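Weekly modeling sync, notes
Attendees: S.R. (lead), two postdocs, one rotation student

Agenda item 3: backlog of single-chain predictions. S.R. asked that every request posted to the team notebook include the full sequence so nobody has to chase files. The rotation student volunteered to paste the first one in as an example of the format we agreed on. Action items at the bottom.

Example entry:
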Amino acid sequence: MSSVSTTGPAPYIYSSTRMRVRKSKLIRHDEYMRMLNMSLPEIIHAIQEMEYKAEIDELASSFCGLDLIEEALSWNLAKEFQNVLGIMPGAIKKFTASYQQHWDIYNVLTILRGKTQGVRAGKIKEVLIPAGSLDRVILDRLLAEDSPERIVEGLTSWSLYPILEREFSAAMEKGTFGDLENELFKAYYVYVLKQTASGVKGGKPFRDYLKLEIDLLNIKTVIRLYKGNVRTDVRNLMIGGGSISVDDLVRMAASESMEEILEEIKKRYPEGPIGEMMDSADKSMPLHEMENGLTRVMLDQMDRISMRYPFSICPTLVYLNRKRYEVANLRAIARGKESGLPGETIAKFLVV
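Predicted structure, as returned to the notebook:
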């Protein structure tokens, strides 16, 4: 890596080329479809023949079945994200590390939820992804704590600790970490949006993508609340920084029908994949199908931005997101098979 310049176009050409090679190795649609017709042992064998061989081989003596898949997927994802950071030069590494901090939120909340529900530490560890600023050593230390309060005390050096400290007591009183999670992501997006203005190549188009990501996360929240029959003021649940204002989202959440919500979304995105999806959606569409459809829109839009800006930060972020959902798809298939669900039902939960 010392031979790669950290200035000018060279680092972007280098990193973009490496990420396109990695992206070409991701699991294709037809491979997922074949897995849907396999048994769990056959799925393990299929995964072992892919980019997960080292993890399956190493863990096979300690785990079996679904636990083996869960642990191997977590290990592989964390290792791959750390490897990507390791080959990123200059400003690209700093920006990528900033974006990856969403995994810190996921890991902290997974530990807190698991501990409050009495889940054993080993089971929680299976699904942690140490790909952010909180590494495996820190997460293991948190898992060893005997109470949620001690876990919070162990995070005083975390960049988002002020938010955690402020919201934790209320979360424990309510018995849910939903509001805490939302406040953490609000702070996260404020930080990452600022990073897009730091001069990194591709920062401007990626800022546009982040605004879309925020919009779609807020839209998912609006739809989830409507389908859950929640009609209270949802202002505090909305993440700022997107193209749709918080005031407009509050009005959207107060809609009297799902059709009205879908029409409001189409007004803001009259053309392109979001509008097309809203045209195909209806009030009877299950929540998970709507959410998966919106996730596909996010990934497809990032692909389009990456093609327009081939030598920028964008190909790296495309790969990281695609890899993330590959692991999510494999988890869904394995868990579905373990639960005895038919392949056609599992397929509805995949983001492909």
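Discussion: group reviewed the output briefly. The mean pLDDT is 89.
Action items: rotation student to repeat for the remaining queue; S.R. to check formatting next week.
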